[in-house]
Protein 1
Amino acid sequence: MKRKHVISIFGIATLIVLAYIIYKIFAGVDIEFLEIMAMGVFSMIFLYASTWGNKKEKNGIFQDEELGQRIVEKSSKVSYTILYFVILATVLADKIVNEASNVFLLFVLVFATVIFPLFQYLIAKRYQ
């Protein structure tokens, strides 16, 4: 399938799911887990198709080239940092609102704190 078609299909699907979620919010209906997941998956595929080129069509930036690898490296570190602070803010907000800490959120925060340095260590050991 051509890159333009993938971008169009998943862009439209993302907008439809977003509109449905907004409709449910205004209607006062609960938003289901699968709707949130669909929004995330459709957005992910749309952004992935918009970012990377297609070798068959010979357009865009390819993920396996040097520039593509640098983009992946930088975006991974930035997105990890943003995700870490979002988790931290969620734990703090949960503590303020509920006056107690959610054990599962604390586990995710500890995991997010440890995972990046752990993988740096493991990858560094592989090169030594």
Protein 2
Amino acid sequence: MPNARESGQATVELVAVLPLLALVGLALWQAVVAGQAMWLAAGAARSAARAVAVGDDPAPAARRALTPALERGLRVRVGEAGAVRVAVAVPAVVGGGRLTTVSATAAFPPQT
């Protein structure tokens, strides 16, 4: 049986660890959001490259492949030989705004 000096020790330790657990959870969620942004940027680049290959505007094609949160930071650039580079701002989980920008490049031969 614990003595009177140790009473409540587990509660104090739990309260001390809870902020750390919250920070780890937010960091993991931010990693998931960044991974999704990278995945969707690659899909948007492929969609935009297909649009360029058939003579359409690449920006609307890229926009359709993204979630509304990622559309706000979208940049589409068409390079040489139909290569399309799509850059997307990664939204921050806490505080709003953007954390960083990820990009992807794709190209398809012109379709006639």
